[in-house]
TrEMBL record:
<keyword id="KW-0479">Metal-binding</keyword>
<feature type="domain" description="PDZ">
    <location>
        <begin position="204"/>
        <end position="258"/>
    </location>
</feature>
<dbReference type="InterPro" id="IPR004387">
    <property type="entry name" value="Pept_M50_Zn"/>
</dbReference>
<keyword id="KW-0645">Protease</keyword>
<keyword id="KW-0472">Membrane</keyword>
<keyword id="KW-0862">Zinc</keyword>
<dbReference type="Pfam" id="PF17820">
    <property type="entry name" value="PDZ_6"/>
</dbReference>
<dbReference type="Pfam" id="PF02163">
    <property type="entry name" value="Peptidase_M50"/>
</dbReference>
<dbReference type="InterPro" id="IPR041489">
    <property type="entry name" value="PDZ_6"/>
</dbReference>
<keyword id="KW-0482">Metalloprotease</keyword>
<feature type="transmembrane region" description="Helical">
    <location>
        <begin position="172"/>
        <end position="196"/>
    </location>
</feature>
<dbReference type="InterPro" id="IPR001478">
    <property type="entry name" value="PDZ"/>
</dbReference>
<keyword id="KW-0378">Hydrolase</keyword>
<dbReference type="GO" id="GO:0008237">
    <property type="term" value="F:metallopeptidase activity"/>
</dbReference>
<keyword id="KW-0812">Transmembrane</keyword>
<feature type="transmembrane region" description="Helical">
    <location>
        <begin position="402"/>
        <end position="420"/>
    </location>
</feature>
<protein>
    <recommendedName>
        <fullName>Zinc metalloprotease</fullName>
        <ecNumber>3.4.24.-</ecNumber>
    </recommendedName>
</protein>
Length: 428
């Protein structure tokens, strides 16, 4: 039963993170007028698909990511290449309206052609030898033209609907939107948790056994109003005051049944693990704060927790990159799908609240990792956009394609190594 729960939780967490990330790309792409032929969750063979308007939505077998295929983004494979034999239908202007790639059609007045040359990005043409006269012909592609494949119509993107022909700012928004939506997802989850759980106050709910708070004499219902003569109206103020104490004794002023009492307390020093390589020192009194349910405080709390999550993940990423140069890098610093599954299995046993909080943290991690300046990731492609904006021209297409290909190979090899490392760590 627990195995089934873990599988379901993993599918939901993975699906949510990837769907939100890719939807961010597609949301801004479509608003920029960019055609999106496919929205995919997962990689590899299709296991489910449906078409809505011009976009094919697919779920694929391997849970290792997802993608939005955008027309003219330099990553799509053209369906028609030189040397192929296809059938075409033309209009009265001798422009191609349909390129037929299978036999599941009922078109009349079509021509068979052997493609000699074609361009579906800039000049939009197909040139080839037709079977009826064995002559070479040049056909322009109509403004509204389609591939016909597996009985479906797939629109051929006109020049003005291709990513490559959009302005740098539109490209930037489209690429940055994936990570941005991951940050927004984390914010929504943290705000939702704050509304559900309530936000911590300066009140004492439960006192931990054998804790500094218990030794000092704090009781449930107390309100900590001052630490060393500094007012503490909320839990953040208490945490900051304890942090400044560096573990030295502090004077607590509490409100108990309308009367003020003072206690001298020495906070307990505790190392909290933020990531596999980073720790944070906290000074704790050992009590559980009371919470309150208000209208606006959960929103503020959600923003604070999101910013803190960004700080944690960014610190871990910087530490990981630094470890490459210091020789301390290890694949154990990274998690692939197998590692994520193992973490889901661990977290889901602690309850739904922790799973939601961990999902929010993972969403921040996905957003920041995708902003790394690696050519195959969003951050690397954003660098190409900056180049275009600065020099007023795009990078040479062949060079850009080659750089992205090298980046994709690097990411693929890294993913394989991390996955194998995860399997060895957790299952062998």
């Amino acid at each position: 039963m627990s195995f089934l729960v873990t599988i379901v939780a993993f599918i939901i967490v993975f699906g949510l993170l990837v769907s939100v990330h890719e939807y961010g790309h597609m949301f801004f792409a479509k608003r920029a007028g960019i055609m999106c032929p496919e929205f995919a969750i997962g990689m590899g063979p299709k296991i489910f698909s449906f078409r809505k308007n011009e976009t094919l939505y697919t779920i694929r077998l391997l849970p290792v990511g997802g993608y939005v295929r955008m027309a003219g983004d330099g990553l799509e494979e053209p369906l028609v290449k030189p040397g192929m034999h296809v059938k075409i239908k033309v209009n009265d202007k001798d422009e191609i309206t349909h390129i037929i790639l299978d036999d599941q059609h009922k078109f009349q007045q079509i021509e068979a052609i052997e493609v000699k040359s074609c361009d579906f990005k800039d000049d939009l043409f197909v040139e080839g030898v037709t079977s009826y006269d064995q002559e070479r012909h040049h056909y322009s592609i109509a403004k509204k033209a389609y591939y016909v494949e597996n009985g479906s119509l797939i629109q051929i993107a006109p020049r003005d609907r291709q990513f490559t022909h959009k302005k740098p700012f539109q490209k930037f928004l489209t690429l940055f939107a994936g990570p941005l939506f991951n940050f927004l997802l984390a914010l929504v989850l943290f705000i939702g948790l704050a509304y559900f759980q309530g936000t911590p106050t300066n009140g004492v709910d439960k006192v931990g056994k054998d804790s500094p708070a218990e030794h000092a004499g704090l009781k449930s219902g107390d309100k900590i109003v001052k630490i060393d003569n500094k007012k503490t109206n909320d839990q953040d103020a208490i945490s900051n005051a304890l942090k400044k104490s560096k573990g030295d004794k502090v004077k607590l002023t509490v409100d108990r049944d309308g009367k003020q009492k003072t206690f001298n307390v020495k906070p307990k020093k505790e190392e909290v693990k933020l990531s596999k390589t980073q720790k944070e020192t906290k000074y704790l009194l050992g009590y559980q704060p009371s919470t309150e349910h208000t209208l606006f405080k959960p929103i503020v709390d959600g923003f604070n927790r999101t910013i803190f999550a960004v700080k944690i993940v960014l610190t871990a990423i910087v530490g990981m990159i630094a470890s490459i140069f210091t020789g301390h890098f290890s694949l154990n610093m990274l998690n692939g799908p197998v590692g994520i599954y193992h973490n889901v299995d661990t977290v889901v046993k602690t309850g739904i609240i922790n799973l939601i909080s961990w999902t929010a943290l993972l969403s921040v991690n996905l957003g920041l990792m995708n902003l790394l300046p690696i050519p195959a990731l969003d951050g690397g492609r954003i660098l190409f956009v900056f180049y275009e904006a600065i020099f007023r021209k795009p990078l040479n297409k062949k060079a850009e394609t080659a750089i992205i290909a090298v980046g994709a190979i690097f990411v693929l090899i890294l993913m394989v190594l991390v996955t194998w490392n995860d399997i060895q760590r957790y299952f062998l």
